[in-house]
Amino acid sequence: MALLEINNLYVSYGAIRALHGVSFHVERGEIVTLIGANGAGKSTTLRAISGLLSTDSGSIIYDGIDITRKAASDIVRLGIVQVPEGRRIFAPLTVRENLEMGAFTRKDKAEIEASMQHVFELFPRLKERLEQTGGTLSGGEQQMLAVARALMAKPKLLLMDEPSMGLAPILVEEIFDIIREINRNGVTVLLVEQNAHMALSVAHRGYVLETGAIELEGSAQELAQNPRVREAYLGGG
Q: In this predicted model, what pLDDT tens digit does every residue of 21-43 receive, in sequence order?
């Protein structure tokens, strides 16, 4: 059984339909990427899985449980955590407080402290900035904090929405190295990313979304070599 199964999902914003019968699955231990142009429905898909958007029809099955109508807070408790587009860190709070907010569903203080130490191994810079407020961090550091905050919830499935957006190329490499490391540590990742080249370099499989529907799917290697994908998302040829 797949860890996540999306079946015939329809989602609208008022009169505008954003998703038209989207179906895909994510197996345990995979990195799966959704690629597509702006407005294709990638972020909408993640928000629906997270319980932040209600669905018109279709189902979202996670670890054998139908979560289609569950509250976002219950979905986090089940192990699905999202790193939102635009980071959305708590700017007035310190790095430490942001990380503690990520662990709001957890009670065991010793385990929370162990998670914090693990996060510092992945992101040494955050340890150096522990008492700085989130708003004073650089863009790259804020993205690291957004990922670290999500990890504090101990996710089984991490949803990542445009983690490379607005970052310098060297930081993009760093973030994608960290995504690989998170996955090696046993976390399944569903990645939405405009930088299709980087997304396909880390993913096991991928799906191409166009105007709210899945048009192509395959292994990351197959998609990277597909002429349509190369033309539309990888700079041609």
A: 999 999 999 999 999 988 899 99
